[in-house]
Amino acid sequence: MGDSSIQFHKIWLDQCAATEDIRESFGLQKALRYLIGEKLFSFVEAAEDEPDFAAELPAFVAEIRRIFTAKQIADFLDELEHTKFLAPNEPDLELDDLDDPNEQPWLENPVLGAEELLRFSRVRQLLQE
Fold first, then answer.
1. Would you call 11 exposed, middle or buried from its count of C-beta atoms within 10 A (0-12, 13-18, 19+)?
2. Is the pTM of this model over 0.70?
């Protein structure tokens, strides 16, 4: 990579900085959902195939652990596990009309589901070492 190219594997720096603003404006849960639930999961997925991302992962995780307390991280992961991974696969009668069936394709695909669950386990292990 030349000096003029964007180093996508360093994007986590901006994401961590944005998290502080998100927490201030929208609260702790939205900040956790943004940085861990979205950005870290995407980063871990990229790190599975890209050495540049894999090399940055420990620094990204260390910064997340600096931004949030161990209890905040643990509580968020527990909630995510129960709502996303252990929730019964039944339609919610009140929200059924609002649900996009394409939003979580891994619910219908066991391979995607297994990959997501393994990724979740990896994220939990990284954050709670």
1. middle
2. yes
